[in-house]
Write a structure and sequence with these properties.
By secondary structure, this protein is an alpha/beta fold. It has helices at 43-51, 63-69, 101-115, 117-129, 144-155, 160-168, 174-184, 200-214, 217-225, 229-239, 248-255, and strands at 14-15, 26-27, 32-35, 56-59, 79-82, 134-137, 240-241. It has a single domain (14-239), classed as Alpha-Beta Complex (Protein-Tyrosine Phosphatase, Chain A), CATH 3.90.190. The protein is built from eleven helices and seven strands. The strands form two sheets. It has a five-stranded mixed β-sheet, with helices on one face. Helix 2 (63-69) links the parallel strand 4 (56-59) and strand 5 (79-82).
């Protein structure tokens, strides 16, 4: 099944269901989504979004990004949480093309893991306690979103190979993300040739760094985010299932494609 759900203006909206956990269960379909910015939803996409039954949105962008480009449409009637996990902004279009791009991005993720502990902790709590289905997103659905997805999947017991596979699925949206940048910046030139890319190597480097510093992702979450066994158990109870089947709402949406 193609995890990407097609929208007119969203390029990187996908279901996190189906990944296998270490206890034999899988992440439930139709319960947890990741995306690029929901501020791009247009009128024609609202019905498609509504069919997913999403009740909670976690927006990982800076407040100034939201002020500039808007938030999820209030007409959606969702519980909306702005948790800006990144504290040191940088412009990807202007990254030096001579640096190792994957190491560079993994280092930026390490900064987020060091700086955004309060927001990451709260995001995990919202996911564990909030109304589901739920979606979390940033601007492109790639870096901040990919980092949170990796942490969450690891806590659910999903192995690194699957986490890396999920991360790299953004590559299917790269061309559209680049086209969107060009649309927003007419006449501009992308200095960084890797804009919009998300190869698995980036998240593998990041996970290796966390493991080197804390023994495991779980160790990082305990040491820096205050994630205890109760929160992990709550995440697993919310998001893992034994049947591996799509939820009714999502199955209906796919049948209607």
């Amino acid at each position: 099944m193609n995890r990407h759900i097609p929208f007119t203006r969203l390029h990187n909206f996908r279901d996190l269901g189906g990944w296998r956990a270490d206890d034999g269960r899988t992440v439930a379909w139709g319960r947890l989504y990741r995306s690029d910015s929901l501020s791009k939803l247009d009128a024609g996409d609202l019905a498609r979004f509504g069919a997913l039954g999403i009740r909670t949105v976690v927006d990982l962008r800076y407040p100034w990004e939201i002020a500039d480009r808007g938030r999820a449409p209030e007409s959606l009637g969702v519980a909306w949480h702005n948790l800006s996990i990144e504290h040191r902004p940088y412009v990807q279009a202007e990254i030096d093309p001579d640096v190792d791009p994957w190491r560079y991005l993994a280092d930026r993720y390490a900064e987020v893991a060091a700086d955004g502990t309060a927001e990451l902790s709260r995001a995990l709590e919202v996911i564990a306690e909030g109304d589901h289905p739920l979606v979390f997103h940033c601007a492109s659905g790639k870096d901040r979103t990919g980092l949170l997805a990796a942490l969450l999947l690891a806590l659910l017991g999903v192995d690194e190979d699957q986490i890396a596979e999920d991360f790299a699925l953004t590559e299917l949206a790269t061309d559209r993300l680049v086209a969107e940048w060009r649309e927003r910046n007419p006449g501009g030139a992308l200095r960084w040739p890797a804009y919009g890319r998300a190869p698995a190597e980036i998240i593998r480097l990041f996970l290796a760094d966390l493991t080197a510093g804390h023994g495991s992702v779980r160790g990082y979450a305990a040491d820096r985010l205050g994630v205890d066994d109760d929160l992990v158990a709550a995440l697993r109870a919310r998001l893992l299932t034994g049947d591996g089947k799509p939820r009714d709402g999502r199955a209906a949406l796919w049948q209607a494609r």
